[in-house]
TrEMBL record:
<dbReference type="InterPro" id="IPR011059">
    <property type="entry name" value="Metal-dep_hydrolase_composite"/>
</dbReference>
<keyword id="KW-0378">Hydrolase</keyword>
<feature type="domain" description="Amidohydrolase 3">
    <location>
        <begin position="54"/>
        <end position="557"/>
    </location>
</feature>
<dbReference type="InterPro" id="IPR033932">
    <property type="entry name" value="YtcJ-like"/>
</dbReference>
<dbReference type="InterPro" id="IPR013108">
    <property type="entry name" value="Amidohydro_3"/>
</dbReference>
<dbReference type="GO" id="GO:0016810">
    <property type="term" value="F:hydrolase activity, acting on carbon-nitrogen (but not peptide) bonds"/>
</dbReference>
<dbReference type="InterPro" id="IPR032466">
    <property type="entry name" value="Metal_Hydrolase"/>
</dbReference>
<dbReference type="Pfam" id="PF07969">
    <property type="entry name" value="Amidohydro_3"/>
</dbReference>
<protein>
    <submittedName>
        <fullName>Amidohydrolase</fullName>
    </submittedName>
</protein>
Length: 563
């Protein structure tokens, strides 16, 4: 019998296997788990020799590493190193004051260097419903192009200098996949929504190789400290992939990086464009995919991303609904679809034929419905293909859709934290959707009860990276005791939440053969915690601290030096 390189004994080890087994000890060799069992079964001559390292967990909890299956890894790292409003609710004047302070201290950059302001959410401007425009940003004492890029990725506000550099003016035609804001006189007000915002941001997000590697290191360090061992970047680009590839070549990659390559509407103006677009995704994947998939962390591009609709909160209300928003002054507002039905059907089918798993941003039940219809057509055309389509967010679902997900073997990735709402947001939901539709908001439990494959994705940096706080919201459905509970669904249990963040996410990524649970033959991606999430109060989950993070048997983060 093979001797272990490392064994962990005397622990509470939650395996997340099909039986939710808890054991005391595990043995690891060459980055693989080679055995699980009691301390007596592992700590003996079958697995231990004089070369084996023995770690005594002393009763601490060990579990599989967290798999964050929808986030924007590199953007998170960029936010850590730029002007950051930290998600605060601020007035326009307070916002400008913080930006001006940053400008005054930022002596490193020249006067023509772009300033990207992050950690900002449009709906959090005070008073609620207020918009910041280029006319506000033009009050800043600077000659630099300045943008505010909302962390939901749906809004970008540019000052006049930035608009000029983007090549936008009052003669710019209105796009089909978003909006370019205008004043009453037709002049641009600096607000770009949805795809125009993303295109503008992408056009200026250029970094040197050295800067990009620095950003990649920042992001993986933040993730490892919270117990994340694998991620799926929901909009991977060459810059991001190149930076992480360099870390891999330098043996400094400490997360498993999965990527979804976006298929923007602008790239597929006709059905005839699809083969060329899919071929580009194949080339991208071939460039970065790790051909030797092993315990040592690598990169894999196995998904395509489709941004199907927008967001449902005011003032945007671009999430696609089945019935109109309840608005006194606008009776037929359904929100937006960024692809035609024909195009969506074709993209999901053709990407699936090519072996890529379609991953869709769907917020409203109208967007969910057209995606489910497309998945059904794909299943009929490819009945034997092991394609694992998934949708992210699903903030508003219709009651008939849970069973459809189960029947079509489609998965959903929850951003748990969105079930934590302010009183004002709860009132807005009640007004916008009415009593019947209100019960489809953040319907995590209803999906799980229907037997749907469910996963977790933090969506960082759209929201702060705070995995354990997100888990707590899934278990309480409220920000804290001073805020209302979103009573449209039941609370999740610790086991349900952690399965979403481990084996559930592994299934969505088609990686359940390798990661997501502590079982013989799988990679040793593990975390050690300072308390047991199964025995503490739900309101204490946010206080869980990760003591050690292990990827492929190698410690990549350690707070507790005694282990």
């Amino acid at each position: 019998m093979a001797k272990a390189d490392v064994i962990y004994v005397n622990g509470y080890i939650y395996t997340a296997d099909k039986q939710d087994t808890v054991c005391e000890a595990i043995a690891i060799k060459n980055g693989y788990i080679i055995a699980t069992g009691s301390t007596q079964e592992i700590n003996n001559q079958n697995y231990v020799d004089n070369q084996t390292t023995i770690y005594d967990l002393k009763g601490k909890t060990m579990m599989p590493g967290i798999i964050d299956s929808h986030l924007h890894t590199f953007w998170g790292g960029m936010q850590l190193s730029s002007c950051n409003l930290n998600y605060q609710s601020l007035t326009i004047d307070d916002t400008l004051a913080i930006i001006q302070q940053y400008l005054d201290k930022d002596s490193v950059n020249h006067n023509n260097h772009w300033l990207q302001v992050r950690g900002w959410l449009r709906q959090e401007i005070l008073p609620v419903g207020t918009d910041i425009t280029r006319f506000d940003l033009d009050r800043l004492n600077t000659s630099r192009p300045v943008i505010l890029f909302s962390n939901d990725c749906h809004t970008l506000v540019a000052n006049s200098i930035a608009l000029e550099k983007f090549g936008l003016d009052k003669n710019t035609p209105e796009p089909t996949d978003g909006k370019i804001g205008r004043s009453a006189d037709g002049e641009l007000n600096g607000i770009l929504e949805d795809a125009p915002a993303m295109r503008a941001f992408d056009s200026i997000s250029k970094l040197t190789d050295e800067q990009a590697i620095h950003v990649a290191k920042l992001s993986q360090t933040e993730l490892n400290e919270q117990g994340v061992t694998a991620v799926m970047d929901a909009r991977i680009t060459e810059t991001q992939a190149d930076a992480f590839l360099q870390l891999q070549k330098q043996d400094q990659l400490t997360i498993r990086l999965f990527g979804a390559r976006e298929l923007p509407p602008d790239d597929v103006s006709s059905i005839e464009d699809i083969p060329n677009v899919i071929n580009k995704v194949k080339q991208f994947a071939a460039r970065y995919d790790d051909k030797n998939w092993q315990p040592k962390p690598g990169i894999k591009v196995s998904h395509v991303k489709l941004f199907v609709d927008g967001v449902m909160q005011q003032p945007l209300m671009t999430a696609r609904l089945l019935k109109p928003y309840n608005l006194a002054d606008e009776k037929n507002r359904y929100g937006d679809l960024y692809y035609s039905i024909e195009m969506l059907d074709a993209l999901i089918l053709e990407s699936s034929k090519a072996g890529f798993h379609p991953h869709m941003h769907t917020v409203g039940e109208g967007a969910i419905e057209v995606v489910l219809n497309a998945i059904e057509k794909m299943r009929n055309a490819l009945p034997d293909a092991d394609i694992r389509p998934s949708t992210a967010h699903n903030e508003l679902s219709a009651s008939h859709q849970f069973a459809r997900y189960k029947k079509l073997n489609a998965g959903v990735v929850f951003s748990f934290q969105w079930a934590g709402c302010s009183s004002a947001m709860v009132e807005q939901y009640e007004t916008l959707f009415g009593e019947e539709r209100y019960h489809g908001l953040e319907a995590h439990g209803q999906y799980i009860d229907a037997g749907v494959h469910c996963a977790f994705g933090s969506d960082w940096p759209i929201d702060p990276l705070n995995e354990w706080y997100d888990f707590q919201i899934a278990m309480t459905r409220q920000i804290d005791s001073d805020h209302p509970r979103l009573n449209s669904d039941r609370n999740l249990t610790a086991k349900e939440v952690l399965r979403c963040a481990t084996i559930g996410a592994a299934y969505i990524l088609k990686q359940d053969e390798y990661i997501g649970s502590i079982e013989k033959g799988k990679f040793a991606d593990l975390i050690i915690l300072d308390r047991n999430p199964f025995t503490i109060a739900a309101t204490d989950i946010q206080n869980v601290k990760v003591l050690t993070t292990i990827v492929g048997g190698k410690i990549v983060y350690q707070q507790d030096k005694s282990l």
